[in-house]
Amino acid sequence: MHCRSSRAGLEIISWKKMSGKSYNVPPSAEFVARVSGIATMAKLPFQETAEGLDAAFIGVPIDTGTSNRPGARFGPRQIRAESAMLRPYNGGTRAAPYESLMVADIGDVNVNLYDLKDTCKRIREAYRKILKTGCIPLTMGGDHTIAYPILQAVAERHGPVGLVHVDAHSDTGDVILGEKIGHGTPFRRCVEEGLLDCSRVVQIGLRGSSYSPDAYAWSRAQGFRVVQADECWHKSLVPLMAEVREQLGAGPVYLSFDIDALDPAFAPGTGTPEIAGLTTIQGVEIIRGCRGLNIVGCDLVEVSPPYDATGNTALLAANLLFEMLCVLPKIKYYN
Ligand SMILES: [Mn+2]
Q1: Counting CB atoms within 10 angstroms of each CB, which of 22, 110, 223, 325 has the fewest?
Q2: Mind listing the pLDDT tens digit for each residue in 194-250?
Q3: In terms of Cα–Cα distance, which of 332, 238, 301 is closest to 21?
């Protein structure tokens, strides 16, 4: 290892590898104090644009689409703070993301907290620019509204995409309080606009009380596979993910992970919690089970730090985002 950082700032740290390429690598806490420096995701360097990157962490700090507890606008900041614990290798899968891809934190979309529709426009335009460079965005939300404009930009580049949607809610509502745009409607809007390849969509973790006896009928009618949380209880999700990989095939896939898919015992800091959810282990199994898919973008949404008294929800989110990075195409594994 070669470490060029002499102070606790944000100098680019790089390892030269046998391939002759060098990549951004977070500084090791053996040499640079974990708590030092400006908070970026995983203590990666910050850069202004996605130029030259294979993957980028980006924040979308809004909660103006939220129907219940607000606070997700603080999600990206808190996830970055808790991400200081992340080390460069995946101890479970032996993935080596920073020997495979050039990754940085490219900051936040400049959202309009007073106008959700304008925010959606700003998100779409920001992601158009990111995707044009060939970079894969790993997004820190923000409430789930953001998946809609992100998927507009993603589908513009890749065509209709497959979707792995992990969530307590289907987010396929039509209108809420007279509004088409909100955190309960993004995937309805995506279907209407042809952004999804509906036979390659799976929703995992859905649960909770509902407004009708079959709350997920609309999803199923579109061709989505719906895996309710009840079907996941007490089980490993490794077999499920083998089926998901078969269903989604080789085409482009977007991964959208709402932290409320997990039980509030694990992730209390969120806007619309539902009991009897997935475990942390199942969440990791889902993401690791996406290895081999042609992932073109990921998000982790709905972390609400004001309801996250221990910081554990944001810590969990940071780790899930790292797991997402570890299953992107072309990642090197030491096994
Ligand atoms: Mn959601």
Answers
A1: 110
A2: 999 999 999 999 999 999 999 999 999 999 999 999 999 999 999 999 999 999 999
A3: 332
**Chain centroid to CA 110: how far?**
18
User: For residue 205, which of 229, 230, 234 has the smallest C-alpha distance?
Assistant: 229
Q: For residue 322, give the 3-state DSSP assignment.
A: helix
Q: Which residues pair with 330 in a beta bridge?
A: none
Any binding-site annotation on 308?
A: no
Q: Structural domains in the chain?
A: 39-325 (3.40.800.10)
What DSSP assignment string belongs to 16-35?
E-TTS-EEE-PPPTTTS-TT
DSSP symbols for 224-268: -EEEEHHHHTTS-SHHHHHHHHHHHTTSEEEEEEEGGGB-TTT--
DSSP H or E run through 192: helix 186-192
Q: Is 171 annotated as a binding residue?
A: yes
Q: pTM of the full predicted structure?
A: 0.95
The reply, when asked if residue 169 is annotated as ligand binding, is yes
Instruction: Determine the length of the chain.
Output: 335
What amino acid is encoded at 214 in this protein? D
Summarised one tens digit per residue, pLDDT across range 92-120 is 999 999 999 999 999 999 999 999 999 99
Tell me the CA–centroid distance for residue 333 and ligand 1, in Å. 31
Interacting residues of 211 by C-beta distance below 8 A, sequence separation 6+: none
Residue 14 DSSP symbol: E
Query: What residues sit around ligand 1, an ion, with C-beta below 5 angstroms?
Result: 144, 167, 171, 258
Q: Based on the number of CB atoms within 10 Å of its own CB, is 203 exposed (0-12), middle (13-18) or buried (19 or more)? A: buried
Q: How far is the CA of 234 from the centre of ligand 1 (A)?
A: 23
Gap between the Cα atoms of 23 and 110, Å rounded: 27
